Amino acid sequence: MGPLLLSMARETVLWPLSATLAVMIAGFFLRGKAPVSAFATGIGFLVGYTLIYGIHAFPPPEAQGWIPFLILLNFLVFYFDDRIGFPGTIRLALQGLFSAAGVILISFPLVKTGFSPVTLLMAFALWFGLWIIIERQDGPALFLAAAGNAIVSAATGSTLLGQLGGVLAAVLGTQLLFNIPRTRVPPGHAGAAVSATIMGSLMLIGHVYAGTALFPSLLLFAAFIGPFAARRLFPDREITQFALGALLALIPVAIASIVAIKSYLSQEY
Q1: What distance in Å separates the CA atoms of residue 142 and residue 22, rounded to the nearest whole number?
Q2: Domain ranges of the chain
């Protein structure tokens, strides 16, 4: 493996993974479980973000520069949700509000040039929908979807977004392994908020600025059907739920990745 690939592997996987694991272990022993997952996701991702992109400015010069600020805002608000418990309607309203804010902030340079309102509404619906799905998922589907998004972004969008997507996948994979065979640090509402914010941001930036292919990206949403089906089929068998859910989630992710890679190879040759 060449020096460049080794450097990319350290930036994308090793350092984010290490930061995430350190926060998870510390949080587990300190017993501050509810917000720990969110903090670990945010810190792990921002370590990789800083190493790969390295620009922290306000206002940010590029769309991905909004991600750290969105992470901080969502963490702070939904930290209190985990602590005091917002009513369901308030939580849903805040999720919708912050989804809309993320879409507008990231797309704002294009809005000024006549960006389609229909596209904005579709982006909001997908971001908000992704958040609601993640809120109800505690299995491997989120990790697999994040890994698939990294592949799709790198193959059909940009290397930078592929790397940032790889960072998110490394962070979520670390947490997934940490919580096997039983949940030691639950994600909580803040964890779902931070994960949805990062993944929603990366997918939106990929489509509106880097031309990431739409079909394989939408196919990644099907990954979340697998764990839901597994829970319905085997409600009292957790190991079977996990294994079957992971297998079913892997199928659309694999298809999306193959489609994206084939698209990349067809352009190369």
Answers
A1: 21
A2: 3-268
